[in-house]
C-alpha cells in the first residue's frame, strides 16, 4: 500500500459503478477492499485490478455482519436493475436495510466515514420537477418496485439514525440513472437493452409512447461525484443528488442509439409498465455549490463508449 493511501471498503465493488470506483481509488493511491456476493457483479469487471497488491476482494454478503479495519466505506452493494428486483424482492429488502445496518455498525466500530449509494427512486413518481433534495418523494409503499424504493428510503433513515444517535460520519448520495461500460448486457435496463437490440438488429422495444423523459449519467461522472462527496466537509452529510440534468425522451434515446450503432432496427412500442415514473430529472444546484461537481460527459460520448464496450463483449 502506498504511504499516503487510506484503507477503503467498497461494497458492491464488482458491479457497474463499484468497479469503476475501485479503479479510481487504487489509481489515487488507496488500498481497496471490495466486498461482493457476485449476485449481479462479476470478477471480469475487476480484471484490471486483480493482480494489484493494493486491491483485495472478499466474497461476502452484506446481510451478514462484517469486521474489518477501514477508514472509509462506500456502500454500493445492491442489485440496481429492475429484473433482479422483481426476481427476488426479499433479498433486495434484506440487502438495502439489513446490509446498510451492518455497514453502519462496522463504520461505528471502525470510526470510518460511510457513504450510501441511495437513488433517485426515493423520489418515486415525482410531483415536483426537477427534483431537489428537499423533495420528500411520491412512492407507493406496496407497489411492484417498492422493495427497492422503500428499502433505499429505509436505508437513508438508518444512516441519519446512526449519525444522530451515535455520531457516525455519513454521506448520502442520491444517484440518478447511471450507464456505461460493464453494464450487464442482459440486465434489461433501458440503455443496455436498447444498445443490445440495435447491435443484434432486432426490434427496439419501448414501453409506452416513448415520451417518458429521463436523464442519463455516465459512470465516470457518477464516480467523480461520489469521491468528491466522500471528501466533503465533515458537517455535510447530504442527501445530495448526483445526476445529469440533461433530459431526453426514450424515443430520442432510441434514435441516438440507432444512429451511433448504424443499426436498421425498427422501433416497436409495447404496453406501458405499471407505475413507471413519467419524468425524473436531477436538480444539481447543491452538488455544484458543495462539491463544484457537474457532469462532463455528454450522452452521445457516453453512449459511444458504452456501445464500443458492448461490441467488445458480444
Ligand atoms: N446504476 C444506476 O443507475 C444506479 C442509480 C441509482 C442508484 N444506484 C445504486 O448504486 C449502487 C451500485 O449500482 P450498480 O449500477 O453498480 O449496480 P450493479 O448491480 O452493477 O452492482 C451492484 C453490486 O452489488 C453486489 N451485491 C448485490 N447484493 C449484494 C449483497 N447482499 N452483498 C454483497 N454484494 C451485493 C452485486 O453482486 C454487484 O456487484 C447500488 O446500490 C444501486 O442501488 C445505481
Could you give the order of the helices and strands?
EHEEEHHEHEEHEEEHEEHEHH
Round the mean pLDDT to the nearest integer and report it: 94
Helix content: 25-40%
What are the low-pLDDT stretches, counting only 5+ consecutive residues below 50?
none
Largest sheet: 7 strands, parallel
Question: What portion of the residues fall into strands of 2 or more residues?
Answer: 15-25%
**Would you tell me the structural class of the helices and strands?**
alpha/beta
Strand adjacency order, main sheet: 3-2-1-4-5-6-11
Please compute the radius of gyration using only Cα atoms.
19 Å
Bound small molecules, by name, code or SMILES, are:
nicotinamide-adenine-dinucleotide
The number of helical elements comes to: 9
Number of strands: 13
Kindly report how far apart the N and C termini lie.
Answer: 36 Å
Structure described in brief:
With 314 residues, this protein is of the alpha/beta class. The chain is 38% helix and 17% strand. It binds nicotinamide-adenine-dinucleotide (NAD).
Describe the structure.
The chain has 314 residues and is an alpha/beta fold. The radius of gyration is 19 Å and the shape is globular. The chain starts with 6 loop residues before the first strand and ends with a helix. It has helices at 16-27, 82-87, 89-110, 146-166, 190-200, 219-230, 250-261, 285-291, 299-313; strands spanning 7-11, 31-36, 55-59, 72-75, 113-119, 170-175, 178-179, 204-207, 213-215, 217-218, 240-242, 247-249, 267-270. The strands form four sheets. It has a seven-stranded parallel beta sheet, sandwiched between helices. The longest helix is centred in the first third of the chain and has 22 residues, at 89-110. Strand 5 (113-119), helix 4 (146-166) and strand 6 (170-175) form a beta-alpha-beta unit. It is built from nine helices and 13 strands. Helix content is 38%, strand content 17%. The structure holds nicotinamide-adenine-dinucleotide. The site of nicotinamide-adenine-dinucleotide has 28 residues, from helix 1, helix 3 and strand 5.
